[in-house]
Give the backbone structure.
Amino acid sequence: MQRAIILISLMAFLITTISLPSLALLRPGCPASPETMLRVLTNSIATLYNILPIKIGAVPLFPFPGAYDTKASWPFPICFCLRPPLFIPLPGLAIGHWEPIEAYEVVKVPFCFPSLGFDIPTPAPIKGLLAGKEADRMSNGEHQAPFAQVHQLTYEVWRIIRLFMDFICLTPMGEIDVSYITEVDPFWQNDLLNAILNDPATVLFANPVAQLACMVDAAKSALPKVGRPIDVLFWCMGTWGSIYPTTGHTMDEAGYTNGNLDLANKQLYRSLTGRIITTGRPTVTGMCQPYIRPFWKKSQYSWLMLFPVCMGKRMPIGRPSITWSQGKNPPVPGRCDHFVWMLYRKRECCAF
């Protein structure tokens, strides 16, 4: 919390006390300012009701009608875990809820940080550092595909407001921090370079045959009320398209807002590969301790927009954009085409 306070204080000091030529260096099109930082923080706190429903076993203790949820992996209220030092089964209370763990900034201006309220101006366009929209060469420049940079931020709201920090079923994450930025990743900028040197699995999944399976995932995600992605089809994002290639390029048939959420989802996938914390059954894995899966569990995650428009309810991966994206990217100069998304993860634990 001290780091966050220091950062906020420093930014306020620089903006209010220094009459800077440096303010003139803030590039047009980047909305980063103390106002946007405060807006994102306020929206993240105001929407904390999205942790609901809270369940004891499979029974909702605090329901949230209409909210996306998954089936409890352990339907009974009492669970058992092997606790040290004796490693005998000890009883606990099976609790399930959704916790906000990270924020994802998707920006068309490199090094623009709306959530943190500052911009890092570059004196001239850097070769190889892409921004904004790009023309598709295969369509003679007529088709525009969204390209954006993604900033992955540790943004644990509970620690910011200092509530429930002693609750055993909250995942300890840390203060506000920058986990990853794609501007420094050459593989994010180039599909071919990424496929050859970084992610050879692109050859297996970024092809028409593998993409046919995504039609099933899209159909399942589009079902009203009960729609959710199919976890085994890990290379698909429901109606949002395919994870591959895992770069900053995506198609915009579903709209620019949806395309930018695609990019946040791609970065989530890249960060989880090989170290995915998920949930499972008591006395085995998951509710007693985190474990690693070879592929991500899509149904375990949901998204909530915080900026430029604050959404009321989080949504699962793959939900059709026609049901949620209208009016979420207002044509306000200097603010549009920049997004901040809050990532919620399903947490199930055996509290004792």
In short: Confidence is low (pLDDT under 50) at residues 1-26, 135-140. The longest helix spans residues 256-272.
